[in-house]
Amino acid sequence: MKALDGIKILDFTHVQSGPTCTQLLAWFGADVIKVERPGVGDATRKQLVDVPGADSLYFTMLNHNKRSIELNSKNETGKEILTRLIEECDVMVENFAPGALDRMGFTWERIQEINPKMILASIKGFGPGKYEDCKVYENVAQCAGGAASTTGFLDGPPLVTGAQIGDSGTGLHLALGIVTALFHREKSGRGQKVSAAMQDGVLNLTRVKLRDQQRLAAGPLKEYSQYGEGIPFGAATPRAGNDSGGGQPGRILKCKGWETDPNAYTYFITQAAVWGNVCDLIGKPEWKDAPGYATPPERLDKLNEIFAAVEDWTKTKDKFEVMAICNPLNIPVGPILSTKELMEDEGLRATGTIVDVDHPERGRYVSVGCPVKLSNSPVAVERSPLLGEHTLEILSQVLGYGDADLDRVIASGAVGTPPKAAAE
Ligand code: COA
Asked: What is the pLDDT of residue 245?
């Protein structure tokens, strides 16, 4: 039995943010019923297609372990089926543009009337206020949530990151809200509305930069490289390149092979506790006790000089050698791993974080498995559903529709052309 066994999720999500959330819930054991527009489905099915005719990796990698029902929620019979699904399910998750659910006729008030125990979980780009009506995608959220203004180098433009903190990050936030609401429902007997705005999610992950914003009032941010470079601070938290975000200075440094390999780099942290080990390693034992170098505050205006010396050493080793040498010395380092290296990583495969998945249309592909491991709730990653693959199964098993109901529903056009009808 898995942690969320018995919980039914009515999954009205699409693209990335919502599907990330419901995929996690599916991995924790919930029965996730993905509702898709007949004949069309989630737009990502046909975005960035690499195998003609097959669902894209964009879709397959975000929709594992779910069931798919084709359903036109604007058709009268479709609304009847949706109403029945709301009666049967525990949680409804959606990330439509603002107002879309209301326009379908399923306001929060109406949903509560249908099922007072229902938890309605929504992702929007912005929370209530001046931007609440805006449509939002990943990079908009990264920009509006403070991540972009604090990412990049001081002399360059704001940058977005490869990690999808706006979409997948908000999906994670929403999943936590949902399980919290489920826990609360055990005591209260009632559902509630769970809202996660992408701007808020990104801002939450950018929390330390608001810490620095306020620290500016007390003087320059001495752990930022620009302090040692004599560049004055402005009114807002600046971009800090690869400076560490915490109190232990760090940098990305070149390793052997950097001239031809774009990922021959390591992150290197000059943690105060192991300063002596760092000095011995890079051939600067005199820095251990030298005035201006011996204590962390003294070193803050010399980070460029110190990291140049460390880099002279890292350039003589490849990134894995750096790791092998530094780890026993307790010096925190991290190789810059490429996506190719990660896909081939034996350790990640052994834990199920990287998995191979078989798919009837596209063959075998690599995916990222569940990143959270529950000891009593192991996850077997199953392929994403084909469009409408479970339409009849859900209508009959979950809603109890008999043959006459199925014929009526199919004739109404509310559920596309499920296999039974296609065969006739
Ligand atoms: N049956 C009938 N109609 C359906 C349907 C179904 N099964 N599923 C969706 N639709 C309709 C919606 O009701 C909506 O119709 P309306 O505009 O008449 O109300 C329409 O399809 C389009 O939905 P929408 O959400 O507006 O999609 P979009 O492609 O125009 O916008 C986003 C996409 C992602 C920008 C938008 O959904 C959004 O801002 N979502 C919230 C933030 C978010 O999650 N962004 C990140 C996505 S990774």
From this structure: 76
